[in-house]
Design a protein that fits this description.
This protein has 8 helices and 5 strands. It has 196 residues and is an alpha+beta fold. A 5-stranded antiparallel beta sheet has the order 2-1-5-4-3, sandwiched between helices. Helix 5 (136-148) packs antiparallel against helix 6.
Length: 196
């Protein structure tokens, strides 16, 4: 399983922090893709949680939210006000080797809690493990997918994405795409269908 290496780290994060959920998310300006998750149902891996990941990526170090209802940035988030009704969050940015932040390791719980410095160090170390597992083709695909959604126009976006898909096929690694991207890129649809 090409995602097993990420699943192992995400499950470890959930165990270490003793939380309900954990996930490794890749994100662009307004969307996220869940690369690996523990505890969180697939139905809950939607764009509703993009604010948590986006804030994590644009911050410095770990983002700790001891109680989401007490933080005005997240108090009205759909992940907080409706299922799964998150009350605690800690996340750490994931960087490609070139320094570009492509996602976040996120840990969530339905109960508020206090986090100490040693726990921030733990999630930093787990995020570093994920960075160490990224393959060159996954970094390229993440960049291409983000490029596709970055006001380049459909034609240029499809060209970049098709190149990334062909590169991933040559290198034999899995590709991470959402439905909108698959619909707009025939090569992506073919690769996606072969891997299902």
């Amino acid at each position: 399983d090409p995602e097993e290496r990420f699943d192992r780290i995400v499950a470890q994060a959930q165990r270490i922090f003793g939380t309900d959920y954990a996930a490794f998310n890749i994100i662009d300006r307004d969307r996220r893709w869940t690369k690996s998750r523990a505890g969180l149902p697939a139905a809950d891996c939607s764009d509703r949680g993009v604010e948590f990941c986006s804030t994590t990526i644009h911050g410095h170090g770990a983002l700790v939210v001891a109680d989401t209802l007490e933080d005005p940035r997240f108090a009205e988030n759909a992940f907080v006000t409706a299922g799964p009704r998150l009350r605690f969050y800690i996340g750490y940015p994931i960087e490609a080797p070139d320094g570009q932040r492509i996602g976040a390791l996120c840990v969530y719980d339905r109960t508020p809690r206090t986090i100490y410095g040693k726990e921030e160090a733990m999630i930093r170390d787990l995020a570093a493990q994920i960075e160490g597992e990224l393959t060159p083709c996954e970094e390229e695909i993440a960049a291409r997918v983000m490029d596709h959604h970055a006001d380049l126009g459909p034609r240029r976006g499809r060209t970049h994405l098709a190149r990334a898909v062909r590169a991933s096929n040559r290198r034999g690694c899995a590709i991470l795409l959402d439905r909108d991207v698959i619909e707009e890129a025939p090569h992506a649809r073919e690769a996606h269908d072969r891997r299902r």
